[in-house]
Amino acid sequence: MRCAEPADELVVEALACLGTPLAVYYLLTGERVPSEIWELGEPDPQIGDFLRGVAGDEKSPRLMTNTCDYYRPGEHQMNRDTFHTELATRRLRWHRRMERTLASEAHMAATFGAWLVTPADPLWPEQLRDLGPAQPYGLWCLGDSRHLLDLANLPSAALVGSRDPSIYGSEATTHLAAELARRGYLVISGGAMGIDITAHRAALTHSTAELPTVAFMAGGLDRLYPAQNGDTLRDIVERGLIMSEVSIGNTPTRWRFLERNRLIAGLARHTVVIEARWRSGALNTARHALEIGRPLWAVPGQINSPNSVGTNRLLRDGLAQILTEASDLLEYDAAAGYELGAEHAGDWDAEESAASTVLDDLTERQGRVWDDLGLRSYRGVDDIASALGLGAREVMMDLAQLERLGLAESNGTGWRKMRPKKGA
């Protein structure tokens, strides 16, 4: 973790074909791998002495144990000469990072309150093993380590999308994240501007679960990025988890953002793309979800909006299922046999029934007015009337009725939509 970039093909080759102890030894020393070990070998006492010197007597037994899930001795994807050439190149790049000792890195992590979990730990998120060779070497974390238990038990959804969403995209994110959070779903995202941080905020506000949200960073946890989201990210540390496979002191880069996306898809049961341009990084997350066989969903967008080209094409090409309500996920999980908790299922059924009843009883014009309102932004009566081709007085009468039904709210100058409540 300290030296190699995420999912580095050279490190994957070493772990897969040599096993953990030999991989650590040859990557750190830069020595040539003897042909007999390259084909099939076991660590000798010299390697054991080296690993004890690196990690200390207490931790070296873990390094001497092969913890690689995809160990396939001798089944190399590159020849030995290429491996050594690439290793020499990598070690030049890793030189500055290798100057830090394990003790100094542990001290830096403790300074920021970070702790490490690896695939050898009993609380390692098992769902990440579906990533195969792209599984992270370990994860640095901020937050309460007891939340690792929640990762195994909670239903979860990753909500991803544009960093510059439309009003529609922001409102859809808030609505879906809030509804999922109320039903005890863990909301996972990347902490970035736009869709990501909107999903995190809604989860923090509405969650009924012990672990409301998880954010994956693309850099070291000594720097919560972006700084504009600092308050929300610190709230996540207090109530949720922030994770990164990148060691302390490393800055976010475009490459690391793209690699980070596989972890978002790997940790979540579902991946939901809410709004994405055609070349959006969110589509990279979607690809990872499809590769490991996880359900992929997309929110349909306006046909003339650049922000929805990516999501609409996912739907057109049959790669994603259409998502219009959080209940779509709950119904999918129920059909798949997942345990959701009777209290959540019961509440959901009651509220869905209430929503259907109150909305079905609206007049055609009231329904048009309600559909035109936004969930977050307040709009004036004249603006609503103009958009619908109605008179201001007609709209005002309908808004008053919607308010009585709990379907609209006024701040004195404008109106916004309210979702039906249980018992409405």
Structural account:
It contains 18 helices and eleven strands. It has 424 residues and is of the alpha/beta class. It has three domains: 9-97, no CATH class; 126-340, Rossmann fold, CATH 3.40.50; 344-417, Orthogonal Bundle (Arc Repressor Mutant, subunit A), CATH 1.10.10.10. The strands form two sheets. The protein has a nine-stranded mixed sheet, with helices on both faces. Strands 10-11 form a two-stranded antiparallel ribbon. Helix 13 links the parallel strand 8 and strand 9 (321-322). Helix 2 crosses helix 4 (45-63), helix 9 packs across helix 10 (230-239) and helix 11 (254-267) packs across helix 12 (281-291). The radius of gyration is 25 Å and the shape is elongated. The N and C termini lie far apart (53 Å).
Summarize the topology.
Layout: H1 9-18, H2 20-29, H3 35-40, H4 45-63, H5 80-98, H6 102-112, E1 115-117, E2 139-143, H7 147-153, E3 156-161, H8 167-182, E4 186-189, H9 195-206, E5 213-216, H10 230-239, E6 241-244, H11 254-267, E7 270-275, H12 281-291, E8 296-298, H13 309-316, E9 321-322, H14 327-336, H15 342-360, H16 364-372, H17 381-388, H18 392-404, E10 408-410, E11 415-417
Parallel strand pairs: 3-4, 3-7, 4-5, 5-6, 7-8, 8-9
Antiparallel strand pairs: 1-2, 2-6, 10-11
Helix pairs in contact: 1-2, 2-4, 8-9, 9-10, 11-12, 16-18, 17-18
